[in-house]
Amino acid sequence: MSRSYRLLASLALVLALIVVSMGAWVRLSDAGLGCPDWPGCYGQLIGVPEAAHEVTRAEAAFGKPVEAPKAWKEMIHRYAAGTLGLCILGLAVLAWRQRARRGPWLEIVLLAVVIGQALLGMLTVTKLLKPVIVTSHLLGGMTTLAMLALLWLREHRPARPATTSAGLRLLAAGALLAVLIQIALGGWVSSNYAAAICADFPTCQGSWWPEMDTHHAFTLDRELGATASGALLPGAALTAIHFTHRLFAAVVLIFVGSLGVQLCRQLLLRRHGIVLLAALALQIGLGIANVLLKLPLPLAVAHNTGAALLLCATLAAVARVFAREKARGRIPAAGFPRRFEVVR
């Protein structure tokens, strides 16, 4: 692809990481409903109501008080997400123009994901932070980030091959699956505001196996803080949500940690192993710190960002493991030196 495509892909990848982090900042600072409408804020596409006459008109029209700080958080996030959408549209256009060299299908799918993400953003507001929609919106953001990471990795394929066994490839696939499941569980914790239900570590509520209500915890079609029947969601359900996420962290530690150690044993893959282990250690440390320090906002946002970084690190490692094996035995079309050409 062209130099402009590579630069735009790099910009979009960095911007996607920022948007994911900002989404966590909005959600965790309780600003998800800072704007009661979409895509504007109290009817304004630019800015939020701050002047006295704007606030009076907005409160009369929407029937709720204007909280400008929360509204600005939401709108800044929307502006960043909109800019990311334009970057992805640009990638799709560039890929389509150069389709003779390579199919643009990944970029087109990515554009469709972003459109779906915009619709989920609207539903997040109109459905009043329904947990399944909020979690889907978070997963959509992570999916966007992951696909941009794949685009970037595709443009930076390794030049030197390395031998990878079937066992290593299986371990890499398992590690990626474990990270994806853990991100979904973390999103469910966040969208249900269940992070603070266990304030101690490694125990939860002073117990190694606290009372849990898994039925109500993982019922998807329900409102925030309520069961499917509309009753108040019991604390045992929130405990189950939090504790399941904590237990599955051990699965991630085993799979991703094992993959990182195995990669470190191969010279050509050692850098990926080190990065993967560092991202894993950072994320686990942030998770424990959030519990012990009672969820300070900067640490909570950092934990979400850490999940995104761990996903990218795992994707990069998996891509190297599979791409290197796929490249074995393949000879570039223009790889023969001229001195070996047959003279006719």
Automatic annotation (TrEMBL):
It comes from the Bacteria. Keywords: Cell membrane, Disulfide bond, Heme biosynthesis, Iron, Membrane, Metal-binding, Oxidoreductase, Transmembrane, Transmembrane helix. It is a multi-pass membrane protein. The chain crosses the membrane at residues 76-96, 108-126, 132-154, 166-185, 243-261, 273-293, 305-323. It is found in: Membrane. Pathway: Porphyrin-containing compound metabolism. Its main location: membrane. Coiled coil: none annotated. The keyword GTP-binding does not apply. InterPro entries: COX15/CtaA_fam (IPR003780), COX15/CtaA_HemeA_synthase (IPR050450). This is Heme A synthase. It comes from Zoogloea oryzae.
